[in-house]
Design goal:
Helix content is 61%, strand content 4%. It is rod-shaped. With 163 residues, the chain is mainly alpha-helical. The chain is built from 6 helices and 2 strands; from the N terminus they run ααβαβααα. It has a two-stranded antiparallel sheet with strand order 1-2.
Length: 163
């Protein structure tokens, strides 16, 4: 979740929210919170249509919090509202995890279908290649000399010949 979204949920300014996090940065390792790099920030700006100079938009790259980072926020944001919001957010994460767990067979089926589609596309190309190989073989067979069966000496018992 983005810092601005969390700040809005907690009812504080984004600047104050970020200051609280920076004062307690040791509580937020990279798997709890990270900042977007310049390219990601530019992409996010283009998606949410904010100004380039920060007027009416973010001047600095936002912080992004994982589920563990949101849980850690409860240790630095102590208001009653912050506690209630944190509980709601954690319940939503649990519901999302449960939904993904319950629907894992659906996700696996979609993955299998995608893999089969990729294999089918590859196979279509291979079919064309195999057909081309057979065409080349047919051409080569035509070019090779075919033996004249009339000139070939017969094999086996010959009538009228002495032993």
């Amino acid at each position: 979740m983005l810092d601005s979204d969390l700040a809005e949920l907690y009812g504080v300014e984004t600047k104050a929210f970020k200051q609280a996090v920076r004062r307690n940065i040791e509580r937020f390792p990279k798997d709890f919170m990270f900042e977007l790099d310049k390219q990601e920030f530019r992409y996010l700006r283009s998606q949410i249509v904010t100004s380039n100079n920060g007027v009416g938009g973010n001047r600095y790259a936002p912080m992004v919090f994982t589920e563990q980072g949101v849980a850690m926020l409860s240790s630095i944001l102590k208001s009653k509202l912050a506690i209630q919001i944190n509980i709601q957010i954690m319940r939503i994460f649990i519901k999302i995890r449960q939904f993904l767990s319950d629907n894992s067979s659906v996700l696996e089926l979609a993955e299998v279908k995608l893999t089969l589609e990729k294999l089918t596309k590859r196979q279509d190309g291979q079919d064309k290649n195999i057909e081309l190989i057979f065409q080349y073989i047919d051409r080569l067979e035509d070019k090779l000399e075919k033996p004249n069966l009339a000139e070939r000496e017969k094999i086996g018992y010959k009538v009228g010949q002495e032993k």
